[in-house]
Amino acid sequence: MKEQNNTQQDTSQNVNEIDLVALFKKLFDKRKKLYKAIGIGVIIGLVIAFSLPKQYQVEVTLSPESGTSGSGNMAGIASMLGMGGMGGLGEDALNVSMFPEIVKTTPFLLEMLETPLQTKEEETMILYDYLDTQKRPWWSHIMGLPGQAIGGIMALFRDKAEETDSIQKIDPFHLTQEQSGRIGMLKGILNAETDSKTSMTKVSVTLQDPVAAALVADSAVVKLQRYITDYRTRKAQEDYNYLTKVAKETEQDYIKAQQRYSQFMDANRNVNLQSMKAEGERLQNAAMTAYQIYSQMETQRQLARAKVQEAKPVFAVVEPATVPLFPSSPKKMMILVVFVFLAVVVESAWILFGEDLWKSVKAEMKKPKE
Questions:
Q1: Do the beta carbons of residue 346 and residue 36 sit within 8 Å?
Q2: Quick one: how far is CA 234 from the chain centroid?
Q3: Does the model's pTM come out above 0.85?
Q4: How many whole angstroms separate alpha carbon 81 and alpha carbon 299?
Q5: How far is residue 118's CA from residue 204's CA, in Å, rounded to a whole number?
Q6: Which H or E run contains 354?
Q7: pLDDT in tens, 205-253
Q8: How far apart are CA 39 and CA 41, in angstroms?
Q9: CA 125, 131, 134, 140 torsion: positive or negative?
């Protein structure tokens, strides 16, 4: 039995070896077809590689502060001044993991579309208009012909005045098709990623003009910093504005009470009546109470102002935006290798299996029906 098993294994191994040798021999015999496939793959790869427009990528790396380092200092100052009830000094709802989502929000993108920029040829325009100048490969124009034809027909029935107004003034609640397309294009070129381990945020912009890419990346970082700062300081700023208003009101109340007391004392300087003394003490106590209230409100106002400063996040720009010297894509050599490989694989599959299968199908089709 063992000898029979060994014999069967040797036979199957020989068959596999013979099959592999036969396959390689078949490919070698028809190597001219493989050469033609390689040539076709080279031509297609070169056409596609040189048809794709050059893209320049700019990356900016941010290292944001967590936003809780100043909480202990503020609590200490508040307790020293007898203001132990100062709340809201802990960590807020904003987290660094939200940065990529913020960059993709419609309000942020609409603000980015209004960014003024300059191209390598020193042309000045806003980002909304620049996106319309982005070059596309020739096959995208062919595929877009039906849509352009439909759009041209619809444009004949569209009010020109309304179209001009929609470009000049963007309503976030009711976007036009063109404005929505610009936002979609901006989402494709603007990207943000946050490393959960280091909390570093990398903002990248990819455009066909290197100067424009650097300007858009720098503008995106500035707007992101301002957006986060406004978010973090909004509540503290509202509290500070309210306390400033109340402090001014209490100051006016204190000044009026002090004036009433001074005027009463000046008018009754030589009067020795007990009722006058009691009235004078009452006005003096009212002025002192008004001063204490004003002093407390002024202390709270100063703490609120410090809280606004403490709430502002600090961003360390680890890698600033710079104008790239070389394009990041297309990678022409990689495209060429991929298409040559695909051409060889497809032609080899056709030689080994496709031709025989096609011949058998044709033979079956030519058989007379019984």
A1: no
A2: 21
A3: no
A4: 8
A5: 18
A6: none
A7: 999 999 999 999 999 988 888 888 888 888 888 999 999 999 999 999 9
A8: 5
A9: negative
Residues 60/217, Cβ–Cβ less than 8 Å:
yes
**How would you write 243-266 as a 3-class SS string?**
HHHHHHHHHHHHHHHHHHHHHHHH
Q: Is the pLDDT of residue 91 over 70?
A: no
Q: How far, in Å, CA of 286 to CA of 261, rounded?
A: 9
Q: Give the CA angle between residues 326, 330, 333 to the nearest 5°.
A: 100
Assess contact for 127 and 112: CB atoms under 8 A.
Answer: yes
* Host H or E run for residue 92: none
Neighbours of 348 (CB within 10 A): 18
**Is the peptide bond preceding residue 330 cis, with omega within 30 degrees of 0?**
yes
The pLDDT value given to residue 151: 60
Pick from 87, 88, 90: which is nearest to 69 by CA? 90
Q: For residue range 161-193, list pLDDT tens digits in order.
A: 444 444 456 777 778 888 888 898 999 899 988
| Model confidence band, residue 58 (pLDDT cutoffs 50, 70, 90) | very high
Dist CA 225 CA 64 (whole Å): 9
Report the distance separating Cα 356 and Cα 30, nearest Å.
14
Collapsing DSSP to helix, strand or coil, 48 comes out as helix
User: Is the Cβ–Cβ distance between 197 and 96 less than 8 Å?
Assistant: no
- For strands 315-319 and 201-207, give the pairing: unpaired
Residues 83/88/90/96 CA torsion (nearest 10 deg):
-150
> Residues for the chain: how many in total?
370
Instruction: Note the helical H segments in the chain.
Output: 2-29, 31-51, 71-80, 99-103, 106-113, 127-130, 138-143, 145-156, 160-168, 177-189, 210-267, 274-311, 332-349, 355-366
Among candidate residues 127, 280, 283, the one with its CA nearest the CA of residue 190 = 127
Tokens 């976030």 map to which residue? 172
Question: What is the radius of gyration, based on Cα positions, of the chain?
Answer: 38
Please, which residues have CB within 8 angstroms of residue 198's CB and are 6 or more apart in sequence?
63
Q: Under a CB-based contact definition with an 8 Å cutoff, are residues 280 and 273 in contact?
A: no
Show the tokens assigned to 165: 């107004």
Helix axis angle for 31-51 and 332-349, nearest 10°, is 150
Amino acid (1-letter code) at residue 243 = L
